[in-house]
């Protein structure tokens, strides 16, 4: 979807937002990561409070993320990339 000729007019606002970011004056690499390879991000998304749109800055990982972060680090270090 992101590379389609009319991506900037896509019906999905997320696609349009990503295309707009990619058009800025910087280098952008978009890399697909399977959900199983980024369990911490997946857990955060599943536990998000979408009723509050404020930005939250975490100075250390939430307690439930430690095991998932360890798994993500070990699985990414074994990737041949």
UniProtKB/TrEMBL annotation:
Residues 10-48 form the RNase H type-1 domain. It comes from the Eukaryota. It holds the Pfam family RVT_3. InterPro entries: RNaseH_domain. This is RNase H type-1 domain-containing protein.
């Amino acid at each position: 979807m992101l590379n389609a000729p009319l991506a900037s007019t896509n019906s999905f606002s997320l696609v349009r937002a990503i295309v707009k970011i990619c058009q800025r004056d910087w280098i952008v690499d978009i890399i697909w990561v399977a959900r199983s390879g980024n369990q911490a991000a997946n857990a955060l998304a599943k536990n998000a409070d979408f009723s509050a749109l404020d930005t939250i800055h975490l100075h250390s990982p939430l307690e439930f993320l430690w095991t998932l972060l360890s798994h993500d680090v070990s699985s990414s270090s074994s990737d041949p990339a």
